[in-house]
């Protein structure tokens, strides 16, 4: 099988898949290949926080031209896979010199499928690019063709908890990946000083409460419409994972802060929906004026980049952010932030101890780690002089 993810999160996802019972795990670019049973597929969909989709291959062949592609697709027993009264769509990617247009390859594949149904039943399933019952993936590299079924349906970043959306919400999969890369093990406080609608807070709180990634999604998965779907096995896996909720005995603080009261209202609405509002404290201040929780604290935040949220002076914002790190956060704090503005990040005035390349949508970003000190690094007691 193939689990799709975002660039930079492959190793995190590989670890998650191993915990689901996957074997033969191989990290690819924006994906992880693995071997597993249908039980593994169900569990990976339900629990993997950094997966965007779980794909199950079901046909492979070589095709040297359009006609061979059509003929090979026509020979697949689609009536055992798709429902004649259902809907389907095809996502396609092609590389090489034979099939140079992915849309045309998808069109030939679609023609072969519907022509087979017409011959057998006199009718055919219909195309639905918005909410199809069956999502197919067509991968062609040179002359090698692989057909896969998307077991997830809608992207797994759509957790089902987002009731209110801020101006530039971070993708839930990216948020979870950032937390894991930052070393969030739920063994200290967590603080997001620019929390927006609360995605990082909710993902952190879900981990702290051992809540499965798709707990709020219900049964909205592609595999629930498959002919081989085993409802009893699926329910059993959900019950096993749900029994772990609250098992971590988390005894620390999770705080969020934002200067915009309307945006904080959205965060509160999302937290109320997830029933995590009692676990997360929200504050309305400028980030310069809001202290973190007392004690060891992991700080992870997604400040404006100047792309979707416009800031009058982004360099000044990042300067203030760096000053806040230095003046308000002590050696028991560790700060991480993500940004795509490589010029503005120089104004933070602190040297990051780690830089990890990630992508927020199409934006090339860096996740930066700052190790903080009481006073300066050279003279830790300087602030007391």
Task: Describe, in short, the structure shown.
It contains 9 helices and 15 strands. With 385 residues, it is α/β, with parallel strands linked by helices.
Describe the structure.
- The chain has 385 residues and is α/β, with parallel strands linked by helices.
- The chain folds into 2 domains: 2-150, 2-Layer Sandwich (VC0802-like); 172-214 and 246-384, 3-Layer(aba) Sandwich (Rossmann fold).
- Helices cover 29% and strands 23% of the residues.
- The strands form 2 sheets. It has an 8-stranded mixed sheet. Strands 11-10-9-12-13-15-14 form a 7-stranded mixed sheet, covered by helices on one side.
- A hairpin with a 3-residue loop joins β2 (23-27) and β3.
- The chain is elongated.
- Mean pLDDT is 93; it is low at 376-385.
Describe the secondary structure blueprint for this structure.
Blueprint: E1 2-4, H1 10-19, E2 23-27, E3 31-35, H2 38-47, E4 53-62, H3 66-75, E5 87-95, H4 102-121, E6 126-127, E7 134-141, E8 144-150, H5 172-181, E9 189-192, H6 199-208, H7 231-242, E10 254-257, H8 261-274, E11 280-283, E12 297-301, H9 314-328, E13 333-339, E14 354-360, E15 363-371
Parallel strand pairs: 5-6, 5-7, 9-10, 9-12, 10-11, 12-13
Antiparallel strand pairs: 1-3, 1-4, 2-3, 4-8, 7-8, 13-15, 14-15
Helix pairs in contact: 2-7, 3-4, 5-6
């Amino acid at each position: 099988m193939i689990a799709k993810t975002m660039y930079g999160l492959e190793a995190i996802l590989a670890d998650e898949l191993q915990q689901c019972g996957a074997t033969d795990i191989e990290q690819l670019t924006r994906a992880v290949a693995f071997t597993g049973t249908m039980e593994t597929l169900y569990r990976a969909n339900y629990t993997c926080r950094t997966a965007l989709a779980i794909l199950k291959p079901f046909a492979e062949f070589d095709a040297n031209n359009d006609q061979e592609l059509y003929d090979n697709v026509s020979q697949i027993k689609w009536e055992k896979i798709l429902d004649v009264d259902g809907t389907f769509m095809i996502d396609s990617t092609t590389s090489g010199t034979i099939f140079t247009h992915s849309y045309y390859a998808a069109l030939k594949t679609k023609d072969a499928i519907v022509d087979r149904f017409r011959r057998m039943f006199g009718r055919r399933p219909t195309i639905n690019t918005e909410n199809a019952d069956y999502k197919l993936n067509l991968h062609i590299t040179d002359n090698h063709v692989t057909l896969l079924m998307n077991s997830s349906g809608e992207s797994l970043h759509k957790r089902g908890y987002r009731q209110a959306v801020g101006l530039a919400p971070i993708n839930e999969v990216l948020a979870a990946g950032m937390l894991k890369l930052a070393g969030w093990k739920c063994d200290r406080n967590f603080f997001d000083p620019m929390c927006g609608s609360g995605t990082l807070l909710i993902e952190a709180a879900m981990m702290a409460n051992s809540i499965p990634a798709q707990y709020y999604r219900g049964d909205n998965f592609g595999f629930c419409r498959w002919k081989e779907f085993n409802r009893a096995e699926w329910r059993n896996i959900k019950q096993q994972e749900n029994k772990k909720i609250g098992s971590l005995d988390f005894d620390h603080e999770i705080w969020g802060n934002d200067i915009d009261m309307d945006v904080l209202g959205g965060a509160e609405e999302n937290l109320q929906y997830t029933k995590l509002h009692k676990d997360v404290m929200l504050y309305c201040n400028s980030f310069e004026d809001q202290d973190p929780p007392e004690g060891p604290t992991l700080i992870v935040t997604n400040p404006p980049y100047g792309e979707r949220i416009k800031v009058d002076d982004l360099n000044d914002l990042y300067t203030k952010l760096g000053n806040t790190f230095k003046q308000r956060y002590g050696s028991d704090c560790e700060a991480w932030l993500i940004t795509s503005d490589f010029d503005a990040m120089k104004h933070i005035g602190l040297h990051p101890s780690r830089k990890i390349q990630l992508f927020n949508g199409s934006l090339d970003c860096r996740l930066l780690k700052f190790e903080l000190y009481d006073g300066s690094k050279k003279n830790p007691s300087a602030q007391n002089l």
